[in-house]
What does this fold into?
Amino acid sequence: MSKYVLPELNYDYAALEPSISARIMELHHSKHHAAYVAGANAALEQMAEARDKNDFAVINKLQKDLAFHLSGHINHSIFWTNLAPTNTDRPEGELAAAIAEFFGSFEAFQAHFNAAAMGIQGSGWAFLAWDSVGSRLIIEQLYDQQSNVATGSIPLLMLDMWEHAFYLDYQNVKGDYVKAFWNIINWSDVSARFELARAKTKGLLVG
It folds into this structure.
C-alpha cells in the first residue's frame, strides 16, 4: 500500500524571514507536518487491519483520525506552495479579475480574509477557495484541520492559524502574523490553482 510522504520545500527554512522565522519553519514542517503524515498512514494501516480481521469496532475513531491527519497533510502541502521568499504585491490577470468580481476589490478581499483569519476560535485556517457549485470565489474558515467547510470548495490560498504556525515569532499578537503573511504569498501558485480548479469543475455542478 502506498504511503503519504512529507513533501520537500522548494525554499530554505530561513527563506521567509522576517515574516516567518527559520525556527518556526523547521518545527512546523519537520515536526508538525510530519506528524500529520505519520498519523494519516497509521490510520490507513489500522483500517487495513480492521478489514483483514473483519473487526470494525473502532472504525469511527479511525475515520476521524484519517480525516484529521490527512486534512492536516493536505492543508500544509498547499500552504507551503502558497508561500515564496519574493512575491508580487497582489495577483494579476484572471485571478485579479475574479477577486474584483466576487469581492468588489482586492482591498475588500484582503480585509475580509484578515477578518476571517482573526476570527478563528481556537485552531484552524482561513482560506480563499473556488466554490465548484456556485462557480465563484469564497473565503472560508476551517476549524482544526477539517471542520466547517463546504464540500464543493477547492482551497487556493491557505493561512495556518494554529498557534504553532506563529507563536514563537508573534506570541499572542496574531494580527502581526496575518499582516506579515501578505508579504510572502506566492501569487503565481494561487493563480495556477485557480485556473486548474475552474477548468476542472466547469460544467460539473450547477448552483
In short: The radius of gyration is 18 Å. The chain has a mean pLDDT of 94.
